[in-house]
Amino acid sequence: MSQDRAAVRERAEAVLRRLAGEHARLREDQWRAIEALVVDRRRVLCVQRTGWGKSAVYFVATALLRERDRAAAGATPSGAPAGGGTPGDTVGPTVIVSPLLALMRNQVESAARAGIRARTINSANLDEWDEITTEIHAGTVDVLLISPERLNNPDFRDGVLPKLAATTGLLVVDEAHCVSDWGHDFRPDYRRLRTFLGNLPTGTPVLATTATANARVTADVAEQLGTELTVESGSGSAGGSAGQRADVLVLRGSLDRESLRLGVLDLPSPAHRLAWLADHLDRLPGSGIVYTLTVAAAGEAAEFLRSRGYPVAAYTGQSDDADRRAAEQDLLDNKIKALIATSALGMGFDKPDLGFVVHLGAPPSPIAYYQQVGRAGRAVEHAEVLLLPGAEDAAIWRYFASLAFPAEEQVRAVLAALHTDRPLSTQALEPLVDLRRARLELMLKVLDVDGAVRRVRGGWLATGEPWVYDEARLRRVAAARTAEQQAMREYAATPGCRMRYLRECLDDAGATDCGRCDRCAEPLFGTEVSPAALSAAETFLGRPGVEVPPKKLWPTGMDAVGVPLKGRIAPAEQALAGRAVGRLSDLGWGGRLRELVGPEAADGPVPDDVTAAVVEVLKAWARGDDPWPRRPVAVVAAGSRSRARLVGSLAERIATVGRLPLLGQLPPPASPSGAARGNSAQRVRALHDAFTVPDDLAAALAGLDGPVLLVDDLIDSGWTMTLLARALRRAGAPDVLPLALAVAG
């Protein structure tokens, strides 16, 4: 197939001008990627910094391929094949696998500017699937964006994917580092791309893009795309011809971001960090993002900044989709100063004029950090990037690390519980295995990719295929994560250039000092905070009290393990809404509470400051917007094997302050099995008959005319407190008000 490369480039430049404006010109590596895709039908991996223009590559390539397709069908207005194609050499739509709905929305709008019709198939538009599929078959869709999770949705995988793969003109894998479990944001569903790739017609071009891949991740991603690497840089022709190459062209560029000014501010406490934001947020240019490590911290920071007069919005994975969309649009329109966000906004948000990114707490990896700060400064001369690390960061890293791939015995238990001919849903599996929902689902996705299980309508099947637990690789991945955490600590403390440090973490061979960061130049921001802002932050974070909603439904599938509990918890056996001093992930009370109930905490009497906080919680509970229905008339302590002194002394002091009788302590379970951090079904299975109410306590409960205050140290899943309350209600307590020092999460 003869190709006029100069003519193709001329058309590519014309499409780019439609996309990005009359003054836009292709970068040399952009052209080399387009040439490899359109002319040579190769597979390409672009590792380029955020803002380099990776989306321009696949939109321009799409336009050229679609023009050639129309020309082959005789539909090109000029009557000539735009890309040098021949009649009959037709292609279907570009398929873009994209991780976030936010990115999809941005991409659809960008495509329209280039005259490209883009549609999406995702969980938010199920009612449009049939219509979109018809449009694809009719050839009216140029670009189809799908999430990686769609690749293993049974209906999509079996009914749409085979036909789609057979007609795909270009496959784009965006944020391709997610393919690799060495990457900072591994997503098992991305591994389904192997199946998609295997079903593509010979010579179908493939483009993978990422801004955050070191050498190891690059090699791993390229392995998923082809059989060998051809790493190139600089100018020149990509060469090759369609259908004759199995290698992957890797185009790595400089990862420097000339517009970013990096800095680190070492502040002594969460209150100081919030106070610094309150004092300096209006000095940061334009609008931006403030990242936090937890959902709770995002909510607290947003609430505090609003109280100081700033227009901000919280953005987390727990926010409603409509709220996230509204928050995104408000930031795009500069109606708010900042989004206070978790890593749910880590990828896929495109605001070229974003003026700053601040982190309240350090991500666990320099690579993840580079990914997030790359949101800023894409179309402005200067953007401020500031890290405000905290002493609590390491504890949060450890928590997320605990959610890694389970131990072999847990995996084998899941495989043993599955059938080869009768699917089990995730909910039905939970009573049979000791894994929480999110971790179980992640593990099943990995096993699906490995061929040990298969997702079908109605749940999961075992395939019966042999499967090997790759313990050595998992150990290496865990070691890599530990090394990344240490590298993040070193980034905060490095005496050298911060941008150079990040680029070297990403194996950027051309890394040099940036001349802009707070190590290379005079820092623009100091650590000073005003007394007024610090006082306000300390008061805000010092407020104790979070509501603990009661459980109202038993976990599903309990009858499968011989536990006769299902459906709604009987109202006569429910607890009322409870209270706790705070969450372990709170910016304010989180650190203090972890000292008392964390995994390394020693048992001892409740400290005076914590007792005072509990008293404040009780006062607010009695007089607040949602007060208890009746004042408690007695106190009961939950039995504890690990913190008997802490819980006992807390109950005693509450009884003394409230002038209430302390009726005693419920004995802890006879077996310690109930302490395991399993899923809800496993918790109920272990504890449903584990609590007995002594006769003397039962007699005292029978004579009460008001609620019992049930005191414990930590509410984790909430099932221990639920079953303790059930035991007390069945023994005669009129009502139960749960009270704990801390709530996990």
TrEMBL record:
BP terms from Gene Ontology: DNA recombination; DNA repair
Residue ranges of domain Helicase ATP-binding in the record: 61-231
Catalytic activity annotation: Couples ATP hydrolysis with the unwinding of duplex DNA by translocating in the 3'-5' direction
Keyword Hydrolase: yes
Keyword Cell division (UniProt): no
This protein's UniProt keywords: ATP-binding, DNA-binding, Helicase, Hydrolase, Isomerase, Nucleotide-binding
All copies of domain Helicase C-terminal, residue ranges: 276-430
SMART domains: DEXDc, HELICc
Molecular functions per Gene Ontology: 3'-5' DNA helicase activity; ATP binding; DNA binding; four-way junction helicase activity
InterPro entries: DEAD/DEAH_box_helicase_dom (IPR011545), Helicase_ATP-bd (IPR014001), Helicase_C-like (IPR001650), P-loop_NTPase (IPR027417), PRTase-like (IPR029057), PRTase_dom (IPR000836), WH-like_DNA-bd_sf (IPR036388)
Gene Ontology, cellular component aspect: bacterial nucleoid; cytoplasm; replisome
Domain of life of the source: Bacteria
EC number: 5.6.2.4
PANTHER family registered for this protein in UniProt: ATP-DEPENDENT DNA HELICASE Q1, DNA HELICASE RECQ FAMILY MEMBER
Family: Belongs to the helicase family. RecQ subfamily.
Protein name as it appears in the record: DNA 3'-5' helicase
